[in-house]
Amino acid sequence: MLDPRQIAERYIATWNETNEGKRSELLQADWNGDASYVDPIAKAVGREDIGGLIGGVQQRFAGFRFALTGAPNGYGEYVHFSWSLGPAGAEAPIEGSDILEIVNGRIARVIGFLDKVPQAA
Fold first, then answer.
1. Are strands 78-87 and 94-103 parallel, antiparallel or unpaired?
2. Rg of the chain in Å (alpha carbons)
3. Which of helix, strand or coil describes residue 18?
4. What separation in angstroms does the CA of 5 have from each of 31, 37, 72, 79?
5. DSSP code of residue 90
6. How far apart (Å, rounded) are the C-alpha atoms in residues 88 and 19?
7. Architecture of domain 4-116
8. Which residue of 35, 71, 93, 121 has the fewest C-beta atoms within 10 A of its own C-beta?
9. Buried b / exposed e across 76-112, counting CB within 10 Å, b at 16+?
């Protein structure tokens, strides 16, 4: 049976892991080899590409951390949760929500939505 909170927490931990080797281990443990990720500004297929995407987000938003907001939920093979991205101790300027498809106990597909983004000046 799916535990949406545990899955969401491990997912967020992967996005927060700055050590490339440790992040690769998390991807290996929790994601299918041919997993896919898509959101309004990025697309990646496979653990290596997804790991590279995560590293790029960390570089672009240095010092920012992902955090779960609200309670994750799920049914069948799907998990849905919301998250924020921002500096510790301050209001997060970026918020989103993701839907994960779980196949054979691992993440097979992620569809991400950006719910709050800063306005360009």
1. antiparallel
2. 14
3. coil
4. 16, 20, 5, 9
5. S
6. 19
7. Roll (3.10)
8. 121
9. eeebbbbbbbbeeeeebebbbebebbbeeebbbbbeb
Instruction: Return the pLDDT at 120.
Output: 63
- The dihedral region occupied by 69, where left means phi > 0, alpha psi between -120 and 50, and beta the remainder, is beta
| pLDDT tens string 43-73 | 999 999 999 999 999 999 999 999 999 999 9
AA letter at 1? M
Low-confidence ranges of the chain (pLDDT < 70): 1, 120-121
90 φ, ψ to 5°?
A: -135, 160
What's the pTM?
A: 0.94
Residue with structure tokens 């995407």? Answer: 53
39 to 3, 111, 121: CA distances (angstroms): 23, 6, 23
